[in-house]
Design brief:
The complex is a heterodimer.
Chain A lengths: L4 H7 L2 H13 L3 H18 L5 E10 L6 E11 L4 E5 L6 H8 L7 E6 L2 E2 L5 H10 L2 E4 L3 H4 L6 H11 L4 H14 L16 H13 L5 E5 L7 H16 L3 E6 L2 H5 L4 E6 L2 E7 H6 L4 H9 L10 H12 L1
Parallel strand pairs in A: 3-8, 3-9, 6-7, 7-8
Antiparallel strand pairs in A: 1-2, 1-4, 4-5, 9-10
Helix pairs in contact in A: 1-3, 7-8, 7-9, 8-9, 9-10, 13-14
Chain B lengths: L13 H5 L11 E10 L4 E11 L4 E5 L6 H9 L6 E10 L2 E2 L5 H10 L1 E4 L13 H13 L3 H14 L5 H5 L8 H12 L6 E5 L7 H18 L2 E6 L2 H7 L2 E6 L2 E7 H6 L4 H13 L7 H5 L1
Parallel strand pairs in B: 3-8, 3-9, 6-7, 7-8
Antiparallel strand pairs in B: 1-2, 1-4, 4-5, 9-10
Helix pairs in contact in B: 4-5, 5-7
The chains are: A alpha/beta, B alpha/beta.
């Protein structure tokens, strides 16, 4: 305990901060305990901001025995505070598995997940529940009806996460109103039921709800895929503002087009592995991996098809070998 | 309504379509003239006049948001309008036959053999408990009168033609064993089994991944090139239609607000709604990021 102390304290969860020093008081080193961790903190912060999400060498398997399949293979990804990273992948690429692993719903077979500097890889249900209650990481589904309880008014849905934390109703409602404003909705909607709202309005409510606890990281799984183009534009616009306001966002999508304009960086998942990661503009304009080239060349654009049929055929053949 | 000059594409306006004087005298396989659709229950018109003509090997695209009337128009052409709806004006001719003269049995003959369609959710058009090959073979036996063994052989050929990698294996598989893209290929194989001259693809690639969507669009393009199949491509996505069609109709609230050659509509949109579609795509599609020289290199 004594040798590993500074490291333990800097990365500890808040509830452990109180138990850590107490043990060290009994070991007779109270001074070191109080001074060293704070030095470490102040020294570390300005140099390199602690990533909101850090995934390292993640392997995930489903099933067992002969049915065991690898869903993720050595995935490493880091998201800085205020950064928006788009994770692009098609059906079966492992993008949802990645989200589920970050949210503690799937246990990785190797690698680690750190959320807000906290290593959550080996967390059990109890610690995950505590983490979720604190609302450090939030999730927005593709279908906003899944993020909202159909039997609760919009107001009750929005304030619920804060009430669970033991905050007052008045404070929670005030925050709900200010967040509705941020997602450009009128606070008239507070009294409505989810079924009374349009898809675009619901998705904006789901985004507002995710922000209620002031999360460090929000994962959004296909947030605009179910929306029509006008609502899509509006939700992406809002997400851009959130990124600018300092919330780290992971935008999981199959659609390069909707992510390219919103994400700072893009990571491309193919068959469970990250085949390419880079600045959004570079990945779209100078895709290096054949799969990324096919993905860009398959996206319908208005000018002309971004690649011709023959070129796509060649890339498909290359990927199938 | 933003009419374009009829001189550049004669079949575009109802008047010109009625008097086909286009230089290459190919008779249209599908001719839709000022089709209007009414809702009998609500006593109102929901599609206010759609016109286009389609010659072999051509593709026309219909773009619009949900409720714009694009699917109703397709269903009218296929003679499968939902109850309450009826064609209240205009005419549809499939390979020279006015559809108002068709009896139910003639319709059954025509569908599949002359005009065919694929829709958005391929799985719901297949029987989950019958192997996909047997379902194609059944279509062949009913529509073309092939014997069991010939039908089986031809079904495998069709699965190969839609670029399924192991057609003999796929023949013996159940729908749940195939991916969405593979299922849509099976549906296309079924749709073209009886050698139709027109294929309507109504949001046929909407539910698919981009790379798979491109594969299906490439396949349709290939069928059109190789067998002269005429296509009606219906999509909410202007870019999908742009990729494959010669002519584009933009529909909104039952009305064709703009119609013309694809490159014209895309690059010089006239109607504010078309401009909005183009602007949205430019703002959030890939176009804004793509340097054309990079992309085509």
């Amino acid at each position: 305990m004594t040798t590993g102390l500074p490291q333990d304290v800097t990365t500890a969860r808040p509830e452990d901060v109180t138990t850590g020093p107490r043990q060290d008081v009994t070991s007779g080193r109270p001074r070191d305990v109080t001074s060293r961790p704070s030095e470490a903190r102040t020294a570390a912060r300005p140099a390199a901001p602690r990533p909101a999400l850090e995934v390292t060498g993640l392997d995930v398997h489903y099933g067992r025995g002969r049915g065991r399949r690898r869903a993720l293979a050595g995935v490493s990804l880091s998201v800085a505070p205020g950064e928006t990273v788009g994770v692009i992948g098609e059906t079966g690429s492992g993008k949802s598995t990645l989200a589920r692993t970050v949210l503690g719903l799937v246990r990785p077979s190797a690698g680690s997940v750190r959320v807000g500097g906290e290593d959550v890889t080996r967390y059990g249900n109890r610690r995950w529940r505590a983490l979720r209650r604190r609302g450090v990481v939030q999730y927005v589904f593709q279908d906003p009806l899944r993020s909202l309880d159909p039997d609760l008014t919009i107001e009750d849905s929005l304030i619920e996460p804060l009430l669970i934390q033991g905050r007052g109703r008045a404070e929670a409602t005030a925050r709900a109103r200010s967040l509705l404003d941020r997602v450009r909705l009128h606070d008239d909607l507070l009294e409505r039921m989810p079924s009374e709202l349009s898809g675009g309005q619901r998705q904006r409510i789901a985004v507002a709800r995710a922000l209620m606890t002031g999360p460090e990281l929000v994962l959004l799984d296909e947030p605009v895929s179910a929306l029509d183009s006008a609502n899509r534009v509006q939700v992406l616009e809002i997400l851009k503002e959130l990124g600018a306001a300092g919330t780290a966002l992971v935008l999981i999508s199959h659609d390069l087009g909707s992510v390219a304009g919103t994400a700072d960086r893009i990571a491309v998942l193919h068959h469970g592995a990250l085949v390419e990661t880079g600045a959004a503009r570079d990945v779209v304009n100078r895709p290096a991996h054949p799969y990324t080239r096919l993905l860009v060349g398959s996206a319908p654009t208005l000018r002309t098809a971004s690649a011709d049929r023959a070129r796509r055929e060649a890339l498909r053949a290359l990927l199938n070998t | 309504m933003t009419p374009r000059s009829p001189s550049s594409a004669p079949e575009r306006t109802p008047a010109a379509a009625a008097a086909p004087t286009a230089p290459p005298k190919v008779p249209p396989v599908l001719s839709v003239r000022d089709v209007r659709i009414g809702d009998r229950a609500g006593h109102r018109e929901v599609v206010h006049g759609v016109s286009f003509g389609l010659t072999p090997g051509k593709a026309v695209g219909v773009v619009g948001e949900s409720g714009s009337g694009k699917t109703l128009t397709c269903r009218a052409v296929l003679g499968i309008l939902p109850r309450h709806f009826e064609i209240t004006g205009g005419s549809v001719e499939i390979a020279g036959t006015d559809i108002t003269t068709l009896t139910p049995s003639r319709w059954t003959e025509l569908r599949g053999a002359t005009i065919s369609a694929v829709f958005q959710d391929p799985a719901s058009y297949l029987n989950p408990s019958i192997r996909v090959g047997a379902q194609i073979a059944e279509v062949l036996r009913v529509k073309t009168g092939l014997k069991r063994r010939q039908a089986r052989h031809r079904a495998v050929e069709l699965l190969r033609a839609v670029r399924l990698r192991d057609p003999a294996l796929v023949y013996g598989q159940y729908p749940h064993e195939l991916s969405g893209g593979m299922l849509q290929r099976v549906l296309i194989a079924t749709a073209v089994a009886a050698g139709p001259r027109v294929l309507i693809a109504d949001e046929a690639t909407t539910a698919l991944d981009v790379t798979v969507q491109a594969e299906i669009l490439d396949l349709l393009d290939e069928l059109r090139e190789e067998s002269g199949l005429a296509l009606v491509v219906v999509s909410h996505d202007l870019a999908v239609v742009a990729q494959i069609c010669d002519e584009v109709l933009v529909m909104r609230q039952g009305e064709v607000v703009e119609q013309g050659p694809a490159h014209e509509v895309l690059h010089h949109p006239r109607h504010p709604y078309t401009r909005l579609l183009v602007a949205e795509h430019e703002q959030y599609g890939l176009d804004r990021f793509l340097d054309p020289t990079e992309a085509s290199s």
